[in-house]
Specification:
The protein contains two helices and 14 strands, in the order βββββββββαβββαββ. By secondary structure, it is mainly beta.
Amino acid sequence: MVVTKRFFTPRNNGEQTIIIFANSIKNSGSCVAGKCIKTGKWIRLVNCEKGSALPNYKTRVFNIKKREKWPLKILQKVGFYVSKHVPLENHQPENYTILDRGLFDNYRIFPQDLNYYLDNPTDLWGYGDSINYTDIKEKNIIINQSLYLINVEDLVLYYKEYNGKLRRRAAFMYNGLNYDFSVTDREFDKILNNNKEIQLTRGILCISLGEPFNNHSYKLVASIIL
């Protein structure tokens, strides 16, 4: 299976603006990603060349008009200055580090505008909830895009107990295929609001291909937009 799409390479030190579609939990920091307002291409903001998460303090957004910072939000337009393109060779080509000037607020889009930014892959890197990383390294599977914003049907958000802990999960149908992924959206608990499960007709999800773990790259629901 080959996923083909060209990626935008911004100029070094150039100012860019993206619409935030993911601000999810990653280790003790945040996985932040969005689409460039000029090109529609994905950009994931990382802290170093190894693709580590942004520390949470780096995700606070400066509002020039009010001269204060506040938490990063989904659908927000965020400006920043690119430092370097630092793709993870096999599975995350969209990664960029940013200069220490931080993030600044450029207003936002509205939920009714989301259809303009949706991706339409045939499938989500095949079937199942992960990809064997050996297949990626040996180029049996080529990953040219590790982020998707998709409209899904039959969405079920639920908790699943595993090794004594409650795990956040999302089951859904996309393009006639059923999927069930882990969820890293930091708003998940708030969405369920003490319910064990929520069933929805449809929703918009940001799907991310995670870093290798036990020789697998797991597919994650990075954000849920209802």
